[in-house]
Amino acid sequence: MKRRWIRCGFLTVLLVGFGDLAGLHAQMAPLDILEERGLIKDGKYFLIKEDCLFIPKLNRVQPLMVQLEKQMTDIDAYYTFEAETQGLDDYRIRLGAQIDSLALELRRVLATNNPSRNYVAQLRQNLNASEQELVQVQANLAQRVKRLRTPLQKAQMADQFQAIRQQFLEALNDLRPEFEAILVAYAQLKDDSTVKGAIRDLSTKAKAGLQLGPSPGFVRAARRVKEAEGWVLPSAPTRKARGKGSNSKRKGSPRAGRPMPAPDRDENVPAPPVPVTGEGPQGASF
């Protein structure tokens, strides 16, 4: 009988102890609850430690992004220059045809019995102006042609870009599993009523808009990488609009803002990669 009472007493103590622990957990301070869930307060955000550790890793991708931007800017600038050079050469051809037409008209008028002096003077003035402009255009074109790249050089330029692109995508693929795990962790915490209640209580007490992560730095870095990733995805080549004043506004010259015809390229040389700018994601994703 004595052993039976001892056993019952021991069970009673255990039940009371577990009850005290459950009550203690229910009475835990909101901040203690969040710390128990592995959340760290940073300003007005409660973050998991992986968030804080991931941002430096994501920032290490930045040098590759800078190289990508530079390569793409250089490539776009070159192909814009090449197209403008082609447009200038087309204008040279039109100008030459205009000179031939003026010279023919002048000879025709002079062959008549009583040519108009004013008309002859106007023809000669226009012919002289066109010939002087042709000299300027040819000189400009000669300087531009020296800067044009061979198909081999353009292929090398594309290869350099592809090498950096591959490094960038590999770096992203290495980070993606950890990144997605962070988002999953935040999604689970967001559905945790205890976490939501603790943050709500702290916000009310502090009269501040406290909230669950991810951190703004995490979101910004991920959005920046997502944008850069969009640049290197396959897409149809486009050309950025040039600014005002990039072309001559003289009568008869290519009009400012008019698209230049695309130059003929070696079919074995890849088309220039061009940034694809889209609307940034609302949250962190890449």
Description:
It is elongated and about 115 Å long. The protein has helices at residues 2-26, 30-36, 49-59, 62-110, 117-147, 151-190, 193-206, 216-231; strands at 39-42, 45-48, 211-212. The protein is built from 8 helices and 3 strands; from the N terminus they run H-H-E-E-H-H-H-H-H-E-H. The longest helix has 49 residues, at 62-110. The protein is mainly alpha-helical and 286 residues long. It has one domain (30-231). Mean pLDDT is 77; it is low at 4-25 and 235-282. The protein has a 3-stranded mixed beta sheet. The two termini are 70 Å apart.
List the helices and strands and how they pair.
Blueprint: H1 2-26, H2 30-36, E1 39-42, E2 45-48, H3 49-59, H4 62-110, H5 117-147, H6 151-190, H7 193-206, E3 211-212, H8 216-231
Parallel strand pairs: 2-3
Antiparallel strand pairs: 1-2
